[in-house]
Specification:
By secondary structure, this protein is an alpha/beta fold. It is about 30% helix and about 15% strand. α6 links the parallel β11 and β12. α1 packs across α12 and α5 crosses α10. The protein starts with a strand and ends with a helix.
Length: about 350
């Protein structure tokens, strides 16, 4: 099939550190190419792929040259222009337009958008189906007017739990995100530390992870992005506990750098408090043979096999108690769960079935 992959433009593909949507789009693109499909990837400049690459803008938003990205907004008396940094909305509109122009010419059998609502408004203007993977965007109430107006278009959910946010959409399948299993080597021998990896934001539960570590008297290693809007949360709830001994912050790590920490962790803590549609780190940890201790929110009950690859909990006390039962979990079972259900190959085959059904 001729497939157009419309990727996000916040980070180049594959992303070097943070960038979960970009990572999924990259994994899917490369696997579809291996399956023999004619894939055109629409992405930001600096992206690398085995597909045909259309670099719609010169740089990803996060890697735009610093002097341009930080330019002050001001009126230039000499030129008459209002100057400032690049406008993300303008660049995303250009990005989408480049893809839709080719789709309107009949160059693709299907377009797959990872841009939540922004490409959806073009779905009735092109000659082929436009598949939208939500990536949790229905969580944002402000997106609902567009989603509801185009609810008849084909949507793919990352988990069955994601559908709870807007059940009236035309979901044609649930396809779990997939990872490159080989990036996360298996390890059966574990150390005694706990691991948290993800955005250090309130809904991700990093403060809860610290409390679990304290109650279970275990070391906690933390890695992830500190977003500007959550700097106050980090300074108030996380930073005071970082002592370099029991609680250690590793910074924002790439997949390659994070993999050795997955391998040796006694358990991975995924203590969210919102309906997260998926959790790539939950799969990456299991691929390394590491069990999860996870809250009963979002997709986690679909990702964790209770009592076999981890424990689903409701309270901090239950999480702390679960750390005493980790010897009941087989690292091989964790690895097998990731390989059989959450590989890039499984994801690509799931989307391949979606595309074929829509094209047929």
């Amino acid at each position: 099939m001729r497939i157009a992959m419309l990727a996000p433009i916040s980070w180049p593909l594959p992303p070097g550190g943070y960038g979960p949507w970009e990572l999924v789009a990259s994994n899917l693109t490369e696997q579809l190419v291996k399956l023999g499909h004619d894939v055109t990837l629409f992405a930001a400049g600096g992206s690398r792929t085995g597909a045909k690459l259309v670099a719609t803008i010169p740089h990803a938003l996060s890697t735009w040259p610093e002097d341009e990205r930080t330019r002050e907004r001001s009126f230039d008396v000499k030129t008459g222009y209002f100057e400032g940094p690049p406008d993300a909305r303008t660049l995303e509109a250009l990005h989408i337009a480049r893809c839709m122009e080719q789709a309107a010419d009949g160059q693709f059998d299907v377009v797959h958008s990872h841009l939540h609502i922004h490409a959806l408004v073009c779905s009735r203007l092109i000659k082929c189906p436009l598949v939208t993977t939500l990536h949790g965007s229905a969580w944002v109430r402000a997106t609902h007017p567009v989603l509801e107006a185009f609810s008849d278009q084909p949507f793919v959910s990352l988990s069955d739990a994601e559908r709870q946010m807007l059940p009236q959409l035309n979901y044609v399948a649930t396809v779990h995100n997939g990872i490159q299993i080989e990036v996360f080597p298996f390890e059966s021998k574990k150390e005694d530390y706990l691991l948290f990896a993800g955005r250090l934001s309130p809904e991700k539960g990093p403060d809860m992870a610290i409390e679990v570590a304290r109650r279970s008297d275990r070391r906690l290693l933390m890695a992830g992005l500190i977003e500007d809007q959550y700097q106050d949360f980090f300074d108030a709830k996380i930073r005071p506990h970082i002592d370099g001994k029991q609680i250690e912050y590793l910074g924002l790590l790439s997949q390659k750098d994070l993999a050795p920490y997955y391998q040796k962790a006694a358990a991975f803590l995924f203590l969210i408090n919102w309906c997260e549609p998926f959790g790539l780190t939950a799969v990456e940890a299991q691929a390394s043979g590491t069990p999860l201790i996870a809250t009963r929110f979002g997709a986690l009950p679909e990702i964790v096999v209770e009592g076999e690859t981890g424990f689903i909990i409701d309270t901090v006390d239950q999480a702390a108690s679960a750390t005493q039962k980790l010897d009941q979990i087989s690292p091989l079972a964790c690895r097998a769960n990731a390989e059989s259900r959450f590989s890039a190959y499984s994801m690509a085959k799931g989307y391949e079935a979606v595309y074929r059904a829509l094209v047929d």
